[in-house]
Amino acid sequence: MNIGEAAKASGLPAKTIRYYEDIGLIRIGRDSNGYRVFDADDVHRLAFLNRSRGLGFSIEDCRALLDLYDDTGRASEDVKRLASEHLARIDARIAELGELRRTMAGLVSACAGDARPDCPILKDLASGQRLAAGHQRLRE
């Protein structure tokens, strides 16, 4: 099948498939004219990547997961360790977002939201205080 068909079957955009090939995450066969040719295994791997990325795994985590998937002698503890590390990053992100939400909720509730020009939200933003490292990352 061609890249359009593989994209539809895997749920990934063709551009993403090309990117994954460019960075060596996947290897796709070519026909005599140089066009990409996908088989069922390729589509399965693409769907695997789609699901992995949908769960928030990084590209490097996906590379490791694919290697583990391909290794029939793998230990499930290796997979669990990688997933547990990812879960810890998710939990940290949730904590960061919770703190960010509390800060924003405090600012919003402190603002009268009326016709007067005084606004605690703008005062806070103008204070120039940097957000905590986790909050800084959330903005990027």
TrEMBL record:
<dbReference type="Pfam" id="PF09278">
    <property type="entry name" value="MerR-DNA-bind"/>
</dbReference>
<protein>
    <submittedName>
        <fullName>Cu(I)-responsive transcriptional regulator</fullName>
    </submittedName>
</protein>
<feature type="domain" description="HTH merR-type">
    <location>
        <begin position="1"/>
        <end position="68"/>
    </location>
</feature>
<dbReference type="GO" id="GO:0003677">
    <property type="term" value="F:DNA binding"/>
</dbReference>
<dbReference type="InterPro" id="IPR015358">
    <property type="entry name" value="Tscrpt_reg_MerR_DNA-bd"/>
</dbReference>
<keyword id="KW-0238">DNA-binding</keyword>
<dbReference type="GO" id="GO:0003700">
    <property type="term" value="F:DNA-binding transcription factor activity"/>
</dbReference>
<dbReference type="InterPro" id="IPR009061">
    <property type="entry name" value="DNA-bd_dom_put_sf"/>
</dbReference>
<dbReference type="InterPro" id="IPR047057">
    <property type="entry name" value="MerR_fam"/>
</dbReference>
<dbReference type="InterPro" id="IPR000551">
    <property type="entry name" value="MerR-type_HTH_dom"/>
</dbReference>
<keyword id="KW-0804">Transcription</keyword>
<keyword id="KW-0805">Transcription regulation</keyword>
<dbReference type="Pfam" id="PF00376">
    <property type="entry name" value="MerR"/>
</dbReference>
